[in-house]
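pinging the channel bc i need a second pair of eyes. not urgent but kinda urgent?? the chain im working w is below, pasted from the shared doc
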Amino acid sequence: MIEVDRSAPIWTITINRPDKAGALTEQMLVDLRDAARDARQAAAVILTGTGKVFSAGADLDAARAGLATSPLWEELSGAIADLPGLTIAALNGTVAGGATGMVLACDLRIAVLSAKFFYPVMKLGYLPQPSDPVRMAALIGPARTKMIFLGGQKLPAATAYEFGLVDELVENGAVLDRAKQLCIDIAAAKSETARAIKAMCR
């Protein structure tokens, strides 16, 4: 259910479980984490999904069995954040709950116009992974982060873009092509130059 296209120099990692709204099982989290760890030589990594939802977060049965508080979420987002190449979340649809962490860890976030963003951990009785509110607040500020985590707000794509949670909006169906366009220059550049520039942007 996690597909990895290792075509050099751009890797594409796809969550392919459209019948379950991209809900993540423990094995899917392991596969995502391992793919991110393996992608250190890629010039760019695109993270995307299939269907109308990028990911609904944890599979509900798995969440009740303990996945909601698993360290795998932090391991995944940490592996993405540590990648020296360009990382792009190409969001084909809605992002919810713990799936937000890997999206926040990317360098760029592109979303379709129909996407929505929400993180209902408080309602469900869980704490978010530690890095998620920190990364979100760095993008949109503490007050707007509290609107999502404490106010339970579900943001439509236009509001997410206005807040700075998303860097660009595209028509439905065009998000992967746009992400690949953004990788053209880095794919042709010397890896040491591109990685040095990314390091300077931090």
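so The CA atoms of residues 109 and 184 lie 17 Å apart. and Residues 2-200 form a domain with the 2-enoyl-CoA Hydratase; Chain A, domain 1 fold (CATH 3.90.226.10). — does that match what u expected or am i reading it wrong
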